[in-house]
C-alpha cells in the first residue's frame, strides 16, 4: 500500500525523523503535554507494522521501497518477515512508552525538546536497521544508531563522565560499524546481491566461499561491538551516564539488540559451520558469566541492570550460535521477554531515582507504601526476569534449557553456563525489585512519593505485557514468536509453546535448580558483592581501563607521527613533495620500461640557438646567485624564454600570458622578499646543497622524460577535432583556446582563478602583518626581525 506513490513502510520508517524535527516546537507549544502528542507517531508506526503479523505468521514476506542510487545498486528498500516485524514492533511499541516516560522524567528540563528529538532520531535509525533490505542502506541506518546514541549518552555534555561515555560508545560501535561495512562489501562481492532477501536466498554460497572466514570476522566484529560482547562489553555499563529513558530504550530493548538481530538475520547463510557454532557460544557464554558476576557486584540500580543486559545479550548470542532450532526458538522467546522486563525495570530504576534522589541500594528501603505502583511494576518485571510462572520469561527459560540440554556434545557445558547465568540474573532482578521497597523505610535525599502517570504507565504496561504474552501464548507463540524463529533458522519452526510444562523433564529440573541457586545468591548478595569486589581488586586491570590506555596510546602515536611528518619546517615539506613527484615520474617508467627514446638533434635556426642560450644563461644565473632576491629575478629569465618560444611557434596569446605571469611573479616575489624578514643569503651547508641538487635533477629528468614520452606517442586528433568542430557552433567563439578555457573548461579555470586569488590574499596578509609590526614601538623598521607584541584584549582594556 502507498500514499502519494510512497509505500507506507517507507513513511513509517521516516516518520520518527519528521517527529524529531517537530519535537522542540511541540514542547514549546504543548509544554508538559507534548509527550502525549508526540507519542502518537510511534503508536501509529506500531499499528502499521502490527498489520503484517497475520501475513508473516503464514510465511509471507514483503519488500517495499524505491531505487535510491540505482547507478550503484543502492535502494531505499525494506524487507519484512517474522524477524523484522517483531523487532519493528519492539522498537515502535516500547518507543511509544519511552516517549511518554521521557515526558515525565524530563519535565521542566530546559532541553526537553532536544532530548525528545534525539530519541526520535534514534527510533527512526533503529527501525531502518531492523527492516532495511539493501545492505548499504542498512549500514547507513546502522551507523546512524551509533551517532544518535552518542548524542543521547552525551546529552548532559557538561559532565566529563557523560562525554567520556558517549565518546567510548561511539569509538567502539563506530569501529565495529566500519568492520561491518567491509563484511557487507565482501558479501556483495561473493553473492552479487545487495538485497537482504536475495542474500538469505543465496543458500550455501557464502559458506562455500573462500572469503567466508574474513566475512565472518567482519560481521562478528560489527555485531559484538554493537551488542557489547566480551571484551567489548565495557561501553554499555558506562553508557548509564545517560538519562534513564535512554538506558531503558537504547541499552535494554533496542540498540544493543542490533548486533543480535544481525547475527539472527545472517544465521541462515553464515550459520551451521564449525566456526559459527564455536565462536558464538564461546563469546556469548563468557559474556553471560562476566555480565552476571559484575551485576551482583553493583549496588547502583542502573549499573546492576546494565550488567544483566550485557549478560542477556551474551545468552542470546550463545543460543543463536548453538546450532539447534529449539535453541534458536529459546533465543527468540528470551529476546522478546527481555525487551519487556528489562525495559520495565530500567524505568522502575529511573522512577526510584527521580522520586527519591538516589539509586544506591544501601540508601533505599521501605518504599512499597510510598510508591505502590512502582513496586508492583518492579515485582511483575522481576518475576519474568527470574523465569517464574506465569510470565513469558518462564516460557523462554524452559525452551532455552530444552535447546541447550539436547545439543550433541556440548549440552552439559552450555546448560551449566545458562543455569549459572540465569540464577545470578534472578538474584540481581530480585535485588532491584525487592531491596528498595521492602524492609525498614530509609531517609532518602528527596521525600519518596509515587511518580506521575507518564512515568509509571510505561513500566506497568511492559510488565503486564510480559504476563499477557505468557497467558495468551496460544496466540503470541505462533503469531509473533514462531515466524521470527523461522526467519532466524531459515526454515519453518513449529514451536512447542506452553505456560506449564507438558511433562516433567530436564527443563523443569533445571528451572528448579536455577530458582534455588538464584534465591540463595539473593539471600547472600551482600557477601557475594564483597567477594566480587575482592576479586576485581585483585585483577585490577580491565577492558574499560584498557580502552583509556588504548586511546592514550593512539594520541601519543599520533603526536609522535605528526612531529615526524609535520615538523613545522617548510624546507622538509618542499623536499618531501619534490622527492615524491620525482619518484612518481621516474619509478613507473623505469619499472615498466616505458621511457622515451633519445631524440635526434634538431636543426636549429640562429634565433632558436639564441633562445636556448638565453635559457642556459638564466640557469647559470640562478645557480650563481648569492642572494635570494637575485635568484628570484634570474629565475624569471626561464619564463621569458618560454614566452619567446610561444611567440616563435605562432601562439602570441600564450606568449603574452606567459610574459604577464612571469613579470607579475617576479615583481610579487621581489616585493615579498623585501617586506619579510628572511635571510638575504642562502647559507645551506654543502651536504644539503648536494641533496637538493640531486632532487632537482631527478625532478627535471622525470618531467623531461615524461614530456618526451608523451610527444613520441602517435598524435590522437579526436579531441582537437571536437574542439575545432564545436567551438563556433556550441560556444559561439572563433578563438578555440579562449573557448576551451572559458566554456569547455570553465570550472577548471574558475578553480585556477580561485587559487591565484587565495595566493594573492595570503601575500597581502603577510605584507600587512609586516607593515603593522614595523609601527610597533621598539620594533625595527622594514627588514628587521619582528618582536612579539602583548596587548590586552579590547574588552579587558576597556
Short description:
The chain is mostly helical and 798 residues long.
What this model shows, in words?
Pfam families: MbhD, MbhE, Proton_antipo_M, Proton_antipo_N. One of its GO terms (biological process) is monoatomic ion transport. The chain crosses the membrane at residues 6-27, 34-54, 74-103, 115-133, 170-189, 209-225, 276-296, 303-320, 332-352, 373-393, 413-433, 453-475, 504-523, 572-592, 604-624, 629-649, 655-678, 690-710, 749-767. This protein is an all-alpha fold. Among the domains are: 271-523, no CATH class; 570-713, Four Helix Bundle (Hemerythrin (Met), subunit A) (Up-down Bundle); 745-798, no CATH class. The protein is built from 33 helices and 4 strands. Strand 1 and strand 2 form a beta hairpin. It starts with a strand and ends with a helix. The model is unreliable at 776-798 (pLDDT under 50).
What secondary-structure arrangement, pairings included, does this model have?
Elements: E1 2-3, E2 6-7, H1 8-30, H2 34-38, H3 40-50, H4 53-56, E3 62-69, E4 74-80, H5 82-105, H6 112-131, H7 135-153, H8 160-191, H9 196-200, H10 212-226, H11 235-238, H12 244-249, H13 258-270, H14 276-297, H15 301-320, H16 325-356, H17 372-385, H18 392-405, H19 411-434, H20 453-471, H21 473-489, H22 506-523, H23 525-539, H24 543-565, H25 570-592, H26 606-624, H27 628-648, H28 652-675, H29 686-711, H30 718-726, H31 736-744, H32 746-775, H33 794-797
Antiparallel strand pairs: 1-2, 3-4
Helix pairs in contact: 1-3, 1-6, 3-5, 5-6, 5-16, 5-20, 5-21, 6-7, 7-8, 8-10, 10-13, 13-15, 14-15, 14-19, 14-23, 15-16, 15-19, 16-17, 16-18, 16-20, 16-21, 17-19, 17-20, 18-19, 18-20, 18-22, 19-22, 20-21, 25-29, 26-27, 27-28, 31-32
Amino acid at each position: 500500500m502507498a500514499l502519494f506513490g510512497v509505500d507506507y513502510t517507507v513513511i513509517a520508517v521516516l516518520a520518527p525523523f519528521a517527529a524529531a524535527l517537530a519535537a522542540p516546537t511541540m514542547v514549546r507549544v504543548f509544554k508538559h503535554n507534548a509527550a502525549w502528542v508526540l507519542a502518537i507517531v510511534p503508536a501509529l508506526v506500531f499499528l502499521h507494522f502490527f498489520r503484517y503479523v497475520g501475513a508473516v505468521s503464514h510465511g509471507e514476506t514483503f519488500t517495499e521501497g524505491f531505487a535510491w542510487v540505482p547507478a550503484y545498486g543502492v535502494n531505499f528498500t525494506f524487507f519484512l518477515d517474522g524477524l523484522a516485524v517483531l523487532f519493528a514492533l519492539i522498537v515502535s511499541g516500547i518507543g511509544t512508552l519511552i516517549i511518554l516516560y521521557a515526558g515525565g522524567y524530563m519535565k521542566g528540563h530546559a532541553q526537553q525538546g532536544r532530548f525528545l528529538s534525539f530519541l526520535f532520531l534514534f527510533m527512526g535509525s533503529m527501525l531502518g536497521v531492523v527492516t532495511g533490505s539493501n545492505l548499504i542502506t542498512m549500514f547507513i541506518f546502522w551507523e546512524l544508531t551509533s551517532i544518535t546514541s552518542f548524542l543521547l549518552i552525551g546529552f548532559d555534555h557538561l559532565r566529563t563522565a557523560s562525554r567520556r561515555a558517549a565518546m567510548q560508545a561511539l569509538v567502539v560501535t563506530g569501529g565495529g560499524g566500519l568492520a561491518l561495512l567491509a563484511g557487507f562489501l565482501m558479501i556483495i562481492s561473493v553473492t552479487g546481491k545487495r538485497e537482504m532477501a536475495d542474500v538469505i536466498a543465496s543458500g550455501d554460497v557464502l559458506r562455500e566461499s573462500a572469503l567466508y572466514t574474513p566475512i565472518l570476522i567482519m560481521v562478528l566484529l560489527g555485531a559484538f561491538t554493537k551488542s557489547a560482547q566480551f571484551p567489548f562489553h565495557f561501553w554499555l555499563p558506562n553508557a548509564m551516564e545517560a538519562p534513564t529513558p535512554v538506558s531503558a530504550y537504547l541499552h535494554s530493548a533496542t540498540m544493543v539488540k542490533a548486533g543480535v538481530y544481525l547475527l539472527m538475520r545472517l544465521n541462515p547463510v553464515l550459520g551451521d559451520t564449525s566456526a559459527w557454532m564455536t565462536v558464538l557460544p564461546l563469546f556469548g557464554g563468557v559474556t553471560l558469566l562476566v555480565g552476571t558476576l559484575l551485576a551482583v557486584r553493583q549496588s547502583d540500580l542502573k549499573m546492576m541492570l546494565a550488567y544483566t543486559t550485557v549478560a542477556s545479550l551474551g545468552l542470546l548470542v550463545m543460543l543463536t550460535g548453538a546450532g539447534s532450532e529449539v535453541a534458536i526458538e529459546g533465543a527468540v522467546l528470551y529476546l522478546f521477554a527481555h525487551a519487556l522486563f528489562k525495559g520495565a525495570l530500567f524505568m522502575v530504576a529511573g522512577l526510584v531515582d527521580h522520586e527519591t534522589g538516589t539509586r544506591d541500594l544501601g540508601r533505599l528501603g521501605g518504599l512499597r507504601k510510598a510508591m505502590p505502583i512502582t513496586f508492583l511494576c518492579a515485582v511483575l518485571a522481576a518475576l519474568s526476569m527470574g523465569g517464574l510462572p506465569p510470565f513469558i520469561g518462564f516460557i523462554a527459560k524452559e525452551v532455552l534449557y530444552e535447546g541447550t540440554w539436547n545439543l550433541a556434545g556440548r549440552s552439559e557445558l552450555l546448560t551449566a553456563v545458562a543455569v549459572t547465568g540465569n540464577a545470578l540474573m534472578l538474584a540481581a532482578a530480585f535485588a532491584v525489585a525487592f531491596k528498595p521497597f521492602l524492609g525498614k523505610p530509609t531517609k532518602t535525599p528527596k521525600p519518596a512519593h509515587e511518580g506521575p502517570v507518564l512515568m509509571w504507565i510505561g513500566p506497568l504496561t511492559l510488565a503486564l505485557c510480559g504476563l499477557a504474552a505468557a497467558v495468551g501464548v496460544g496466540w503470541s507463540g505462533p503469531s509473533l514468536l514462531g515466524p521470527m524463529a523461522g526467519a532466524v533458522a531459515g526454515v519453518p519452526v513449529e514451536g512447542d509453546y506452553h505456560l506449564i510444562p507438558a511433562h516433567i523433564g530436564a527443563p523443569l529440573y533445571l528451572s528448579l535448580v536455577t530458582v534455588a541457586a538464584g534465591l540463595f545468591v539473593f539471600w547472600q548478595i551482600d557477601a557475594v558483592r564483597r567477594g566480587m569486589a575482592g576479586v576485581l581488586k585483585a585483577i585490577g586491570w580491565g577492558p574499560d581501563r584498557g580502552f583509556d590506555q588504548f586511546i592514550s596510546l593512539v594520541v601519543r602515536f599520533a603526536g609522535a607521527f605528526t612531529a615526524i611528518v609535520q615538523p613545522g619546517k617548510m624546507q622538509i615539506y618542499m623536499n618531501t613533495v619534490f622527492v615524491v613527484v620525482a619518484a612518481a615520474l621516474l619509478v613507473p617508467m623505469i619499472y615498466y620500461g616505458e621511457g622515451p627514446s633519445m631524440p635526434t638533434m634538431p636543426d636549429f635556426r640562429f634565433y632558436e640557438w639564441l633562445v636556448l642560450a638565453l635559457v642556459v644563461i638564466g640557469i647559470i644565473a640562478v645557480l650563481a646567485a648569492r642572494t635570494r632576491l637575485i635568484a628570484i629575478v634570474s629565475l624569471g629569465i626561464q619564463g621569458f624564454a618560454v614566452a619567446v618560444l610561444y611567440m616563435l611557434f605562432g601562439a602570441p596569446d600564450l606568449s603574452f600570458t606567459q610574459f604577464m605571469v612571469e613579470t607579475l611573479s617576479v615583481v610579487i616575489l621581489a616585493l615579498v622578499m623585501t617586506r619579510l624578514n628572511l635571510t638575504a643569503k642562502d647559507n645551506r651547508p654543502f651536504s644539503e646543497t648536494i641533496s637538493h641538487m640531486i632532487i632537482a635533477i631527478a625532478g627535471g629528468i622525470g618531467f623531461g622524460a615524461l614530456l618526451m614520452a608523451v610527444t613520441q606517442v602517435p598524435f590522437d586528433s579526436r579531441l582537437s577535432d571536437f574542439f575545432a568542430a564545436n567551438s563556433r557552433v556550441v560556444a559561439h567563439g572563433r578563438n578555440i583556446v579562449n573557448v576551451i578555457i572559458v566554456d569547455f573548461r570553465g570550472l577548471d579555470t574558475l578553480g585556477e582563478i580561485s587559487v591565484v586569488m587565495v595566493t594573492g590574499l595570503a601575500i597581502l596578509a603577510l605584507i600587512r602583518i609586516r607593515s603593522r609590526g614595523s609601527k610597533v614601538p621598539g620594533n625595527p623598521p622594514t627588514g628587521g626581525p619582528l618582536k612579539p607584541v602583548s596587548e590586552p584584549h579590547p574588552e579587558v582594556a576597556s
